[in-house]
Protein: TRAP transporter small permease protein
Amino acid sequence: MRGLERAYDRLINTMGWIAGSILILLMLATVLKVALRLFFGHGLLGIDQISGIMMVWMTFLGAAWVLREGGHVAVDILTSNLTGNTARVAALIAAVTGTIVCLAVAWFGFQAVITSLRRGVVVAAELEIPRAVNLIPIPFGALLMGLEFMRQAINICRGEIPVTAGAH
Structure:
């Protein structure tokens, strides 16, 4: 089981690195577009469209890594004064809810990708890119986040995650 968990962590780390690399490529593409527009009066065709696709990929590939590292936004207005068992139960409810929501998004996202591929849906824009290209990272990233929330729930139940006031 530890080998499977290590492989999962390597996958999450790889997805985090890919997301970071996409962010750098996105920044470079934007700088290139602005520079070309400034010096030559026009940018590259499709950069905005590709940038939008890159943002979706970056977000969903990096989301599980951010979740594992505790970097997601947490609204602790209700939980900041909880301690002990109450804090643990609240954290468990949040982790289980996150698991359910992410796995549902993964399932419906997978269905959307399959439907899009079967129908051959293409986004009508500067570049004709299959819609599935935009959708593929959504079920994959949501599945990984669901698994990460599930791992958090299991670790909370085992007492391996210390739950303190204001923790998420």
About this structure: The chain has a mean pLDDT of 89. Residues 2-158 form one domain. The chain is about 75% helix and 0% strand. The two ends are 26 Å apart (CA to CA).
